[in-house]
């Protein structure tokens, strides 16, 4: 359920990802030591971050829907509550997505 929620948020707020800070800012945008070295790295990192999140949002949506479907099937047909294991799985996937975005951007700067 969390994964589905995160994917929907990425879809809803993806238009705000078009607008990134144009100047190096330590309060918003993709901020790493490498991205803040110079203006060229900063602009490239902001665009790459948007690309990485766009690449992951569709996958997160489908995975979230599959997990929701599995949870509903197990709950209503087999009377087994898989809430906690699926929350842990979704948390791992969300954290993995954050690591993927970081890896994707840092490798291409």
Automatic annotation (TrEMBL):
<dbReference type="Pfam" id="PF13630">
    <property type="entry name" value="SdpI"/>
</dbReference>
<feature type="transmembrane region" description="Helical">
    <location>
        <begin position="59"/>
        <end position="78"/>
    </location>
</feature>
<keyword id="KW-1133">Transmembrane helix</keyword>
<keyword id="KW-0812">Transmembrane</keyword>
<keyword id="KW-0472">Membrane</keyword>
<dbReference type="InterPro" id="IPR025962">
    <property type="entry name" value="SdpI/YhfL"/>
</dbReference>
<feature type="transmembrane region" description="Helical">
    <location>
        <begin position="83"/>
        <end position="105"/>
    </location>
</feature>
<protein>
    <submittedName>
        <fullName>SdpI family protein</fullName>
    </submittedName>
</protein>
């Amino acid at each position: 359920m969390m994964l589905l929620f995160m994917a929907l948020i990425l879809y809803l707020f993806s238009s705000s990802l078009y607008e990134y800070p144009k100047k190096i800012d330590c309060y918003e945008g993709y901020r790493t030591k490498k991205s803040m070295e110079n203006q060229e790295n900063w602009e490239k990192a902001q665009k790459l971050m948007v690309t990485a999140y766009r690449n992951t949002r569709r996958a997160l949506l489908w995975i979230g829907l599959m997990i929701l479907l599995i949870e509903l099937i197990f709950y209503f047909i087999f009377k087994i509550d898989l809430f906690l294991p699926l929350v842990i799985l979704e948390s791992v996937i969300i954290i993995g997505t954050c690591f993927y975005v970081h890896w994707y951007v840092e490798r291409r700067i």
